[in-house]
Amino acid sequence: QVQLVQSGSELKKPGASVKVSCKASGYTFTSYAMNWVRQAPGQGLEWMGWINTNTGNPTYAQGFTGRFVFSLDTSVSTAYLQISSLKAEDTAVYYCARECGSGTYKSYNWFDPWGQGTLVTVSS
Amino acid sequence: QSVLTQPPSASGTPGQRVTISCSGSSSNIGNNYVYWYQQLPGTAPKLLIYRNNQRPSGVPDRFSGSKSGTSASLAISGLRSEDEADYYCAAWDDSLSGWVFGGGTKLTVL
After folding, report:
1. Contacts with A111 from chain B: Cβ below 8 Å
2. Average pLDDT for residues B85-96, to the nearest whole number?
3. Distance between CA B14 and CA B30 in Å, rounded?
């Protein structure tokens, strides 16, 4: 079955970096874009951006430029989210989500499935 | 502050029908499809409704979605205890060139 399995929880100090992985299985990895969504503790969902799994071209949402990097390793069907210069406010659960639908028009697409989430805690 | 506006909470008793609203603008809901996601406690979000009113296989027909103008609604009929969850609406926003979510509605089954 189609599933996304993310790496485990991370505890990092301010200023450090973290790399979260999202391994896909059950479908052709390069046929679907991958999105990243953040959920701060007790808060709602916030879209971070997406990566074209064919070309590797990333697109970042406002507020997620500079310290956030999306990447891929298509040989192992895995997407990555790297966050550098971590701050306390980066503490959140980070989800990867496969983008389904027509492909051409983003409005026609949706997220399914989602990874189980990776908790990143930034604390000194 | 979320781009899409949802009530923070909703409640109902078993068997009741509840609706959750989602308000946006012409740059998102007004001109694009609406999606609904269900997040059970301690779990990842799950697709509930796509393209305004379509249910993925496996989603009970107790769940239905609708859209009118710049607003959308999720209706849950025959409320069950296992429906207790957070519900999020989402849509593509043409002005932001990205997806936007509502702030989420916590549904309590009394």
Report:
1. 35, 37, 45, 47, 90
2. 97
3. 33
Which pLDDT tens digit goes with each residue over B41-76?
A: 999 999 999 999 999 999 999 999 999 999 999 999
Q: Which two tokens stand for residue A17?
A: 């970096």
Distance CA A22, CA A6 (A): 4
- Beta sheet of B63-68, edge-to-edge order: B18-23, B71-76, B63-68
Task: List, in sequence order, every residue forming a beta bridge with A96; answer none if it has no partner.
Answer: A36
Quote the tokens at residue A52.
Answer: 């074209």
- Per CB-CB distance under 8 Å, the chain A contacts of B33 are 107-108
Cα-based angle B43, A101, A93 (whole degrees, multiple of 5): 25
Token duo for residue A11:
């505890």
Pairwise CB contact (< 8 Å): A112 & B56: yes
Q: Which residues of B11-34 are buried (b: 16+ CB within 10 A; e: fewer)?
A: ebeeeeebebebbbbebbbeebbb
Phi, psi of A88, deg, nearest 5: -55, -35
